[in-house]
Amino acid sequence: MIDLKGKVAVVFGLANKRSIAWGIAQKLSEAGATLAICYQNERLQREAEELAADLPNTKTFRCDVSIDADIDSVFEQLKSAYGKIDILVHSIGFAPNIKNNVLNTAREDFRIAHDISVYSLIALARAAEPLMAEGSSILTLTYYGAEKVFPNYNIMGVAKAGLEAAVRYLASDLGAKKIRVNAISAGPIKTLAARGISDFTSILTAVEQRAPLHRNVDQLEVGNAAMFLSSDLASGITGEITFVDCGFNVTGL
User: Fold this and answer.
1) Catalytic residues
2) What is the pLDDT of residue 199?
3) Is the pLDDT score of 193 beyond 90?
4) pLDDT for the residue 154
5) How confident is the model over 65-100, as pLDDT tens digits?
6) Binding region for NAD(+)
7) Sign of the C-alpha dihedral, residues 10, 16, 17, 21?
8) Helices (H), 6-128
């Protein structure tokens, strides 16, 4: 049994009960961590507060990661509320006009996709670092579309590749302080973000047919992996991309 009692975990990216962030939050709470859940804007506030009410010792905070002042503000609030951060979860990704193929991606759409999906991890890690002690963990979420071409994933695949590179460089930057940085490459899950991917069901079907386990994963399975990577059991793991996809990434045909 993984014990995270006494640990403070901050989870960014909660949209609704189908969010991967929610599966991770549940598992971290189950292991005893004190949770801070961060939502983007007032539109998402009610759902975040209702979900947080189901977890003990959990508070909610608003933060738009595209605004530096918001990041500064929320970490001042977190410092005041907890004094430290042991676990930071970045479950954030967005690309406007994702239906456009990469060739036809507008410059501004490229900028926004990388700002929200990649730079936000760097910005949050920088803000969290002063509050993190030796052995702390930073975790983000990626997808196999960073390595292989998936239909209709388009510019998000390029952004996820950047995110995975950022994980490795941040692991190097923060390694001297013994702060670990890792990513989970989750299999396809019916989240709010997935709705923007055309014919998403074909990807789900392909995983069921070809993955060694012949099924798709769910949020709680991703949460289990996050719980492990956030714990002292993973003290020697950093800069890694861990697949939680029922083995789909190992298959050819």
Assistant:
1) 143, 153
2) 73
3) no
4) 95
5) 999 999 999 999 999 999 999 999 999 999 999 999
6) 13, 19-20, 40, 64-65, 92, 160, 189-193
7) negative
8) 20-30, 42-52, 68-82, 107-114, 120-128
- Residue ranges of the annotated binding site are 13, 19-20, 40, 64-65, 92, 95, 160, 189-193
d(CA 36, CA 34): 7
**36 forms bridges with which residues in the sheet?**
10, 59
pLDDT for 189 equals 86
Q: Which domains does the chain have, with CATH numbers?
A: 8-247 (3.40.50.720)
- Token pair 């013994």: residue: 178
Total residue count of the chain as it appears in this document: 253
Residues β-bridged to residue 61: 38
State the pLDDT at residue 198. 66
Q: Binding-site residues for substrate, please?
A: 95
